[in-house]
Amino acid sequence: MHFLDDSLLPENQEKLVIQAAPYGPEWLPGDADDLPLTMDEHVQAAVDCYNAGATVLHIHVRELDGHGSKRMSMFNELIARLREAVPDMVLQIGGSISFAPEDEGSEAKWLSYDTRHLLADLDPRPDQVTIAINTSQMNIVEIMSEDDLAGTSIAKPEYYRAYRDMVVEAGPDFYLEHLDRLHANGIQPHFQLATLAQLETVERLIRTGVYTGPLVLNYVAIGGGFAGRHPADLIEFVRRTPDGAVLTIESSMRAVAPMNAMAIALGVHVRVGNEDNLWRRKGERMSSVEQVEQMVQIADAVGRDVANGQEAKRIYKVGEYYADTEETLARLGMVPNRRPGRRGFMLRDIDG
Q1: Chain-wide mean pLDDT for the chain?
Q2: 232 three-class SS
Q3: Rounded to an integer, what is the distance from CA 342 to the centroid of its chain?
Q4: Which of 7, 252, 325, 337 is in Cβ range 3.0-4.6 Å of 3 for a Cys bridge?
């Protein structure tokens, strides 16, 4: 993304889109005060986050025993109810479905490719499904301190090891097929990217015509094989992201607020919720709704407007696809592919 002299002035920035992730699939009841169990509680969590200022909802589903659900029927039921309760929210399904271990001593793992492909067939359809690109370690506890995990189930050695050793399986066999299925069903992929190498893979998918649509993505700074919390890495990822992309910053625990404060100042977007963070200050709990409210307050302090639901759908370009590679590159503000025999650095076409 290119920054002009006036790019940090809030009146020139796109309105802030706040993603809420209030379903915390890694946690068990008691780990957070606001984890929903019943379907009514799942819906109410969405309503409360929307009323606080969130316009994108990152969705997981929990069974009544407290474990993450793997049943597509529950996702279908929740989406149908959310369409009624929060019709202006962008509904985004978490592509892992559920990665939490079944019990102490079990692995924490993403579900099989075939199971994750079923998200493309949900009915009603979500607006988005998140998609990981390239297999990588996902050791979410590497970057967490004892204070972060105090009083939670992950503090137990069996669960800690399960999350320490977790791997995201997302090779080409997965993401090529998944992108095809999502496109066929009119569902927008929301790319979850942790490194510049993954961003470059997505650029190659665009330049070769595999993906022709809006580039909507999260920079996932959760450590352990994903990006960390170094501000320079955040800035570099923002710099390398195409001008026409929609970028959201995602971090973990008490780093969420400072990372998102930088995102708000830079003109990109933010994610909060108990899936990412449980704390305001050391030892002081913070609900998903309170985290959304905090983002609204930070945005107000720097003078940046917060998007409403319809504005978020426009910003996210929900429902858009492009005709071909050339249109995709142009819409994303990327230089065209090299023509045969063309030397030197590429420039955007000015003809027509």
Answers
A1: 95
A2: helix
A3: 38
A4: 7
Whether the pLDDT of residue 79 is over 50: the answer is yes
Structure-block tokens of residue 117:
């492909």
Mean pLDDT of 322-351: 91
Strand residue runs (E) in 262-316: 269-272, 279-281, 284-285
Distance CA 150, CA 141 (A): 12
**Alpha-carbon distance 174 to 178, whole Å?**
6
Structure letter (DSSP) for residue 320: -
Confidence of residue 103 (pLDDT cuts 50, 70, 90): confident
Whole-number CA gyration radius for the chain: 20
Cα angle 287, 56, 246; round to 5: 120
- Cβ 252 vs Cβ 144: under 8 Å: yes
Averaged over 338-350, what is the pLDDT? Answer: 87
For residue 235, give the 3-state DSSP assignment.
helix
CATH of domain 10-331: 3.20.20.70
Q: What is the mean pLDDT of residues 262-282?
A: 97
Q: Please report the pLDDT score of residue 352 as a whole number.
A: 46
Burial of 84 (0-12, 13-18, 19+ CB in 10 A): exposed
Quote the tokens at residue 43: 């819906």
Q: What is the DSSP string of 57-112?
A: EEE--B-TTSSBP--HHHHHHHHHHHHHH-TTSEEEE-TTS--S-SSTTSPP-PPP
41-50, 60-69, 178-187, 214-223: which has the minimum mean pLDDT? 60-69
d(CA 208, CA 62): 39
pLDDT confidence of residue 233: 97
Average pLDDT over residues 271-294: 97
Please state, in angstroms and rounded to a whole number, the distance separating the CA atoms of residues 152 and 191: 29
Query: Cα–Cα distance between 313 and 330 in angstroms, integer?
Result: 20
- With contact defined as beta carbons under 8 Å apart, do 251 and 223 qualify? no
Residues in the chain: 352
